[in-house]
Amino acid sequence: MTSAPLKGSDRVTVGPLADGTGTAKSVRPSRPRRRGRGRSAPYWFLTPTLVLFAAFTVVPIGYAIWLSLHKVQVKGIGLGKGAREQVWNGFGNYTDVLHDSEFGHSVLRAFGYGLIVIPTMLGLALLFALMLDTPKARSAPFTRLMIFLPYAVPGIIAALMWGFLYLPAVSPFYYLLDKFGLPQPDLFDGGNLYLSFANIAVWGGTGFNMIVIYTALRAIPPDIYEAARIDGASNFKIALRIKIPIVMPSLVLTFFFSVIATLQVFTEPMALKPLTNSLPSTWSPLMAIYDSAFLKSDIYGASATAVVLALATYLVSFTLLRVSDRYTREDRA
Amino acid sequence: MSINRRQISRRSILAGAAALGLTSTLAACGGSDDEDSGESSGPVKLTYWSWAPNMEKVAAIWNKKNPDITVTVSKQGSGAEILTKVITAKKAGNAPDLIQAEYQSLPTLVSNDVLADISKYVGDAKGEFAAGLWDMVTLGTDAVYGVPQDSGPLMFYYREDLFKEHGLSVPKTWTEFAETARAAKKALPDAYLTTFSSNDPGLFAGLTQQAGAKWWTVDGDGKWTVGIDDAASQKVAEFWGGLVQEGVIDNQPMYTPAWNNALNTGTHIGWVSAVWAPGVLVSAAPKTEGKWRMAPLPQWKAGDNVTGSWGGSSTGVSTDSKNAEAAAKFAHWINTDPQALAALVKEVGIYPAATSGQSGDVLTTPAFFPNQKDFYTTAAEIAATTATAAWGPNVQTAYTAFNDGFGKATKAKKEAQFTSALSTMQSKTFDDMKEQGFEVTEA
Predict the structure, then answer these.
(1) B225 part of a folded domain
(2) How many CB atoms lie within 10 A of CB B30?
(3) For chain A, the helix, strand and coil percentages under 3-state DSSP, each to the nearest 5
(4) Which residues does residue B226 pair with via DSSP β-bridges, in sequence order?
(5) Range(s) for CATH 1.10.3720.10 in chain A?
(6) Are B347 and B315 found together in one domain?
(7) Same domain as B276, residue B424
(8) Which of A333, B151, B350, B362 would bridge with B312, disulfide CB 3.0–4.6 Å?
(9) Do B396 and A293 touch (CB under 8 A)?
(10) Pair B195, B299 in one domain
(11) Among residues of chain B, what percentage have pLDDT more than 70?
C-alpha cells in the first residue's frame, strides 16, 4: 500500500519534468549550458517533498530523540517559576523503558494479538481472493465490494460499534443467547479480550488484504491456467500450485504490513477501554506511550519508548524483508 | 487494524499537525501584534481556553460591557487533554491568557509554571466562596492561582418510586447504605443499589475527602507528603470492596452504554454522584424523568455533616499573559458577577462556586427533577459542607494507577484487592514524585 501511492505521487512530480524536457527540444543548440542547468533541475523538483519531509518527519524524529535523552528535574516543592529544569539524562530513559515490565507486557500482548489476527486475516483474505478468482464465481464485483466495505468504516467507529455488540446489556447477540438459554461468555475477560480485538481487526482488514491479493491474481496471464488444465490440473490444484506461489510477493507484503499494524494496535483497545474493568492503561505499546505522554505529561519517557518501539519495528521489518528476499531468490534459483 | 488504515490515520494526523503548526504560527503572529499595540492603544485582547459549552456566550456579555478588554473563547478538550495542551503551549511561550482549570490540575499547572499568582488582583474575593473551595485555588499557600468557577459537591441520588415500592429507606450513614444495598438486592434480585466504577477516580477521591483523607499535603518547609493510603481512604476502599465482594454493589464501570441502560431500566436504583447529576441522567436515563430524588451523601458517623466533591473547575491566568491584570479582572467578574453567574447557570449549565450564585431564582428546579422543588436549596446546604480536597502535582499518575489497580480489583470482586490497589496507587504516586525530584515523604 505504501509503495503504490508513493509511486503514484512520484509520477505526478515527474510529469512537469517531462514537460520541461519537451520544451527543451526546441532550444537544442545551447546544449552544454542547458545540461549544467538541467543537473540542478531534479533537486528543484524534489525541494517541496524534501522540505515537507524534513519539516514533518526528520525534524520531529530528531526532536523526539533529543527529548528522549533528557528529563525534567524538579527542585524542592516544585511549584511556580524555575521549579522545573530540563536536564541531560543520557540513556536513563532507555534503561527505564527496557526495565519497565509494563511496557514488556504490552509488547507481549501485542504479539499475542498478532498471532490471532495475522493468520486469520490473511488466511481469509487469500481464501476470498481465490474464490472470487475462480471462473465459477457469480456476482463477483458485488461480493468483492461487500467484503471490502468494512475497511471503509473508520477504525474508531468500528471499535465503538463492536463495543456495543460485546456489552451484554445492550447487545442483540446476548439477547438471542439469553432467549435460547445458551451460555453467555464475557467477551472482555482474559483470553476472550484478544479474540474480541482480533475480531474487529479481521472484520476491518480482510477486505483490503483481499483486494491486494486479488489484484495480483488478476494479473496472472490466463494461458498459464490453460496449460495447467491441459495437463489435467483441477481448480484446487491450480490454486495451490500456481496461484498461491505466483501471488506470494503480495502475501509477503500484506503480512509485512500486518505485523507493523499489530505492533501499533491502538484504536480498538483505546475505544473499548472505558467499557470494561479488564483493560489496563498500558495494554498495547502505543497505549503505554500515549499514557506517559498525554496523561502523565512525561514526554521524555514517552519519546524514549517511542524510539524503542520504532527501532524494534524497523528491526522486525528488516528481518522479515531479508527472510522473504532470500525465500524468493531461492525460489528463482 | 490493518496497516493501511494506520497509514491513513497517520496521514490525517500529519495533516492535522500541519494545520496545528499553521494555526499556532498564526496565533504567534497575533500575539506579537498584541505586544505592539496592546498596552498603549486599542483594546486589550485576551484568549480564554475552556471546554465548557456556550462559554463564548458568557464572554459576549463581558465584551459588550468592556469594550477595552475583549475576551475570545477558544474551545478545548476537557480533562487531561487541555492540561497537556496548555503545558505544551506554555513551553512554546504562547499559553492563552485565561485557562479553565480543574481543581485537581492546579498543582500540576503551577508546577509547570503555567498559572500566575493573581492574589494582588483577586485576593479580596476570598469571602465570596466557601472556605473549602478557596483553599483549593491557593494550594494552601499565600498565592492565588485561580478563581473558583464551579463545584461538584457529592450527593446521593435514588429512585424514589422504587425505594417506596420496596420499602427501602434512604441511608443517612454508610452503614445504612450497606443495609439498603442488601435490602435492595433482596427485593430486586436483578438490580443493584449502584456500582463501583474503576473508571472514575474522581468519585473515589471525593468519597475519601468526605472521610477526611488528604492525598497530597505540603508542609511549611516545602515538602510534599503523599497520603493516598491513609486510614480514611483505606476505610472507603474496604467499605466499597466489601460490598462488591458481597455482590450487593455492581462492579461495572460508569459512563458506558451498559451503565446508561442500567439506569434507564432500573437495574441501578441509586447513584452516588455530584450536583451535576441531573444533566447526566437526562441523557443516560431519559425514561426515568421525575422518578429520582436527591439526598445528602451518607455519613461515616451519624450526625456528621460533610461531603466531598467530584469535578469542578476554576479560571486561572497564565504566566504568559501580557495583560495579567485585565485577565484577572475577567476571571473575577465571570465567577462572581450576578449577571455572569446567571449566564453560567443558564447557558453553560454549571453549578456556580460563588456562594451568592448558589441561591436566588437563577437556579430553578432541574427539569428532570420536577418532584423535588427544593433541589437547589438542599444542594446549597450540602455545598457549604464540602471538605477541602488536597491535590498534588501528579494527580494523573495516581488516577491511572487507580484505573489499573481498581480495575483488576472490581473485576475480581475481592475486598483484599481493593486495599492492595490503594497501596499500589500510593507507591506509584510517591515513586513518580520522587523520581521527578520533588521533596516528598509518605504518610
Answers:
(1) yes
(2) 14
(3) 75, 5, 20
(4) B216, B442
(5) 93-332
(6) yes
(7) yes
(8) B151
(9) no
(10) yes
(11) 91
> By the 8 A CB rule, do B71 and B366 touch?
no
> Mind telling me how many Å the CA of B65 is from chain A's nearest CA?
33
Residues B395 and B302 in one domain: yes
What are the pLDDT digits (tens) for B27-86? Answer: 334 333 444 434 445 789 999 999 999 999 999 999 999 999 999 999 998 888 899 899
Measured CA to CA, the distance from residue B398 to residue B108 in angstroms comes to 12
Contacts of B111 in chain A (CB under 8 A): 74, 78-79, 83-84
Whether B16 and B42 map to the same domain: the answer is yes
Domain-located, residue B364: no
User: Using an 8 Å Cβ cutoff, are A306 and A65 in contact?
Assistant: no
Range of lowest pLDDT (A83-92, A231-240, B37-46, B421-430): B37-46
Written as nine digits, the cell of A152 is 471503509
Same domain, B299 and B400: yes
The answer to whether the CB atoms of B5 and A169 lie below 8 A apart is: no
Could you read off the pLDDT of B302-335 as tens digits, one per residue?
999 999 999 999 999 999 999 999 999 999 999 9
Examine the domain organization and report whether B250 and B318 are in the same domain.
Answer: no
What number is the ipTM of this complex? 0.80
Can you name the residues that pair with B426 across neighbouring β-strands?
A: none
Closest CA to A132 of A245, A249, A210: A210
Lookup: cell for A154: 473508520
* Domain encompassing residue B136: 3-151+311-358
Task: Inspect the interface and report whether the beta carbons of B87 and A297 lie closer than 8 Å.
Answer: yes
Average pLDDT, chain A: 85
Question: For residues A110 and B1, is the Cβ–Cβ distance under 8 A?
Answer: no
CB-closest option in B113, B410, B411 to A81: B113
Whether residues B5 and A79 touch (CB distance < 8 A) is answered with no
Q: How many domains does chain B have?
A: 2
User: Which residues in chain A are contacts of B408 at CB distance < 8 A?
Assistant: 277, 280
Q: Tell me what percent of chain B is helix, strand and coil, each rounded to the nearest 5.
A: 50, 15, 30
CATH number of A93-332: 1.10.3720.10
Is B375 within the bounds of a domain? Answer: no
Q: Do the chains contact at B1 and A261, CB–CB below 8 Å?
A: yes
For the domain that residue B117 is a member of, what is the CATH number? 3.40.190.10
First to last CA, chain B: 46
The C-alpha cell that represents B64 in the structure block: 459588550
Question: Does any domain span residue B404?
Answer: yes
- From the number of C-beta atoms within 10 Å of its C-beta (0-12, 13-18, 19+), residue B51 rates as middle
Maximum Cα interatomic distance, chain A, rounded to a whole number of Å: 89
